[in-house]
Structure formats: structure tokens, C-alpha cells
Specification:
Elements: H1 2-23, H2 31-43, H3 59-80, H4 97-121, H5 126-135, H6 165-180, H7 182-194, H8 200-233, H9 241-244, H10 249-263, H11 268-281, H12 288-319, H13 325-347, H14 360-368, H15 374-386, H16 393-442
Helix pairs in contact: 1-12, 2-12, 3-6, 3-10, 3-11, 3-12, 3-15, 4-5, 4-6, 4-13, 5-7, 5-15, 6-11, 6-14, 7-8, 7-15, 8-10, 8-11, 10-11, 13-14, 13-16, 15-16
């Protein structure tokens, strides 16, 4: 009976994945909001008591499913970004300035804020507090589609448009910080298993913070270059899959990049994103990129909605039983205070930058829209498998609550805020054009 019910839930998720985007396109309601709500209603019905919903008992399944969702999303995000990033060209790094500030300043501040709140105010053990900060640090490439770039522009439209600055910043941040949060998750695991000592510092900094990042990025670049050469430039016509439009190469690329990154002891998430970015840089105007992105996006949507439906069921089937005032305060504090302030400080949101780039309003929007999601669930499941004390019911309840709160808060505000910012940007462009025209006439 339970296995049959899985097909019913999966079928419902597939149907909703098909019809929801179009139905909700004009409303301040996102597909994740609807799926979580439907799941919560299903959880209130007379479902079989034997459903495998206990997070710790089913930790391994949760870890692998959410892991797959994240790497699929990272491939889609990497293919969607039009702005180039070349390791050996410093000039290409500069347009990514807001992204680096959110990653290098905003994310550590968010981790520190949540960890301090958990340790000092909530009374958590240090390892659990650090884990909570690391788990809730990354913004999610899975649930943030309403505030991200739509997809790769190819053909004659492949040049980057300044109007996409806010969406680019949020998209690139989400693509990179899923891997960059891993060192802090490992720090929590090391504290839990070995205790806090100065002897941990060289190992953590040298290997987990620097070494695994470098290895992951290098592995992704290598896989991306090899696949791009085969797809576009191979001497064998049978290997030039871009000519045939065989878009399933996207799946082969994400699996290969993740596997190579992990086997080399790097961060697989960073490897997948680096692979997608490297592949995207080859034959940038080729329509094949859009076809690959479409495959990754569709698979991501199906997997995500299924996971959210199950998450909704779990919410009303005991996932929140251990939630208390401390968990609610930390979750809402992250969404409304810690992330916005950390993002605002990193971007200098109180001042307007002259010329192109993020406007003052866009900086505040980038600071606020730090959507939490599937990645947080994966990190918690992974850490719980490494140390039993990091898989407590309270942590599962708090992370589950924070993810759902983020889905609803950011889902409701995404459409009106992005529409308002778009209108402001258009108005500013019109005013600048009028000023230039007036200057030409007077000259």
C-alpha cells in the first residue's frame, strides 16, 4: 500500500509541475508554496501510518534524493548564466563583484550570526550551533527561480543585458554558495567527532576550506572542457552531439562532474557548477546551451516539486513536533534580520553606486532574497550521518520550519518586489535617455 501511494504522490507532483507555472504566472504565489501546502493537507488525511517520513530513520534516502536535486539545479544555473568568468582573466571577475561580496562577506556573517544565536541564546552545543549556521547559510538554486535569470540567451541575443544585474547576482550567488557552505558543515562535524582544539585549524583551513574548494573547481573545469571539446569540436561526427541537439548530455555532464569532484576529494557541488560554466563558455551563442538548460530545468522542477510535496506531508506528520520558540526565533531571525543585514553590509546597500550595476533598491532586494531550501536539508542529512549528535529532532524541526517559512515569505514577495524593481529600472533608463537627448539638443 505504501509503495502504491508513492506512485500517487509522484503522479500528483508531475501533474502539478506541468500546470502550476502557467497558472501562477500572474499571481504572487509560487509553485513551491502550493506544493508544500498541498503536502500539508495530504498529511492531515488518513494516510498509512507506515509512511517513511521520520527524517533520522530515513536519513540516507533524504541525503541522496536532495543531493540529486541540488546537483541538477546547479547544472541548470551554471548553463543559465550568460556572464563569462575566466580563471586566467581578472577582468572577467570584476562584473561578478556583488556576488563575491555576498559570498566573502555576507555568507560568513550569516553563518556567524546563526551560530552565535544558536550557541549563546538557544543553548546549543557548539558543534550543533556551527552546523545550524552552515546548514542555513547557502541560498538555494532550487527554490529561487522567481528571482533568478530565466535561462541562457543564444544566437543574436547572447549578449548580457544590464537589466539582469539583480537576477544575475542572486543566481550566481546561489550557484556558488551551495558548495562554499560545505567547509562550515565539515567544521561542525570535526568539532562533534574530535572536539574543539587548535590542532583542527590547519586541517580545516588547509584541506576543507581551501584544498577541497580548489579541487572541486579544477575538476569541474576539466570535465567541462573535455565535454565541450567533444560536443562542439571533436573530429568525429558521432561525438559532436551539439550538431544533433542531443541535450541529454546535460545529465551526463552533471553526473560526471560531480563524480570526478568527489572522487578527487573536492566539493562535488562546486565541480558541477564549474563544469556548467565552463561548458557554457564554449560556443557561447550556440542554441545547444538552451536545449541542455531546458533538460536540466525540467528535471529539476519535477524532482523539486516531489520533494516539496513530501516535505509538506512530513510537516503535518510530526516533523515540527520538536519545534520550539528557539527554533522559530532563529528561523525568522535569519530570514528577516540576519541575512538582510549581512547582505546589506556586504553590498553597501545604504549608498547608491554610480553608473551600471546594482541600484540601491536592487542591493536591498539582493540582501533580502536569500531563499533557503533543498540544500539545507541535504547538509543536515549529510552531517547527521557523520555524527549522531548532529541529527537531533530539534535540528530537523528548526531547519524544516526555516525552509518552509522562506518558501512562503520569499514566494509571496518575489513577484511584487521584482516587478517594482523592473519598473524603477525602466523609469531610470527613460530618464537617462531623456537627459542625453536634451544634452545633445542643447549642444
Amino acid at each position: 500500500m505504501t509503495s502504491d501511494l508513492v506512485y500517487v504522490v509522484a503522479g500528483g507532483a508531475l501533474l502539478l509541475a506541468i500546470v502550476l507555472p502557467e497558472l501562477l504566472s500572474r499571481w504572487a504565489v509560487s509553485s513551491p508554496m502550493v506544493l508544500v501546502g498541498v503536502g500539508m493537507l495530504l498529511g492531515l488525511t488518513s494516510l498509512p501510518d507506515g509512511l517513511p517520513l521520520d527524517p533520522q530513520a530515513n536519513r540516507a534516502v533524504i541525503e541522496h534524493v536532495t543531493e540529486l536535486v541540488v546537483i541538477v539545479a546547479l547544472m541548470g544555473v551554471g548553463l543559465a548564466i550568460d556572464r563569462p568568468l575566466l580563471v586566467r582573466r581578472v577582468r572577467s571577475w570584476r562584473p561578478w563583484g556583488p556576488t563575491w561580496r555576498l559570498l566573502g562577506i555576507g555568507m560568513p556573517l550569516s553563518i556567524a550570526g546563526v551560530a552565535l544565536l544558536g550557541w549563546w541564546w538557544a543553548g546549543l552545543p557548539l558543534a550543533a550551533a556551527v552546523l545550524l549556521g552552515g546548514v542555513l547559510a547557502p541560498t538555494d538554486p532550487v527554490l529561487a527561480s522567481d528571482v533568478q535569470v530565466a535561462g541562457p540567451r543564444t544566437g543574436e541575443e547572447h549578449e548580457v543585458d544590464e537589466e539582469d544585474e539583480l537576477r544575475f547576482t542572486l543566481t550566481s550567488e546561489a550557484g556558488l554558495n551551495d558548495g562554499l557552505a560545505f567547509p562550515f558543515v565539515y567544521l561542525a562535524i570535526l568539532i562533534a567527532t574530535e572536539g574543539l582544539s587548535l590542532a583542527l585549524v590547519p586541517t580545516w583551513v588547509g584541506f576543507y576550506l581551501v584544498g577541497k574548494i580548489v579541487i572541486g573547481v579544477a575538476a569541474g573545469i576539466l570535465v567541462g572542457r573535455v565535454l565541450a571539446y567533444l560536443a562542439f569540436r571533436s573530429q568525429s561526427a558521432s561525438l559532436r552531439v551539439a550538431e544533433r541537439g542531443e541535450s541529454l548530455l546535460a545529465l551526463a555532464a552533471l553526473v560526471a562532474a560531480y563524480g570526478v569532484g568527489e572522487v578527487a576529494h573536492g566539493y562535488g557541488f562546486l565541480a558541477v557548477f564549474a563544469c556548467a560554466m565552463t561548458f557554457r563558455s564554449a560556443e557561447r551563442s550556440h542554441d545547444y546551451h538552451a536545449a541542455m538548460h531546458d533538460v536540466a530545468e525540467r528535471l529539476e522542477r519535477l524532482l523539486t516539486l516531489f520533494v516539496l510535496l513530501v516535505l509538506g506531508i512530513a510537516l503535518t506528520r510530526g516533523l515540527l513536533e520538536s519545534l520550539d520558540l528557539r527554533g522559530v526565533a532563529i528561523g525568522l531571525g535569519l530570514i528577516f534580520v540576519i541575512r538582510p543585514l549581512a547582505g546589506a553590509l556586504s553590498l553597501g546597500a545604504w549608498r547608491a553606486a554610480p553608473g551600471p550595476g546594482l541600484t540601491k533598491g536592487e542591493k536591498w532586494a539582493a540582501a533580502f532574497f536569500g531563499v533557503r531550501g533543498i540544500g539545507s536539508i541535504y547538509y543536515l542529512a549529510y552531517a547527521a550521518g557523520e555524527a549522531d549528535e548532529l541529527g537531533t529532532d530539534w535540528l530537523w524541526s528548526t531547519v524544516g520550519f526555516t525552509v518552509v517559512a522562506s518558501v512562503f515569505v520569499h514566494g509571496v514577495l518575489a513577484t511584487p518586489v521584482m516587478s517594482r524593481i523592473g519598473r524603477d529600472r525602466d523609469r531610470a533608463a527613460e530618464e537617462q535617455a531623456d537627459e542625453e537627448e536634451a544634452a545633445e539638443r542643447s549642444g
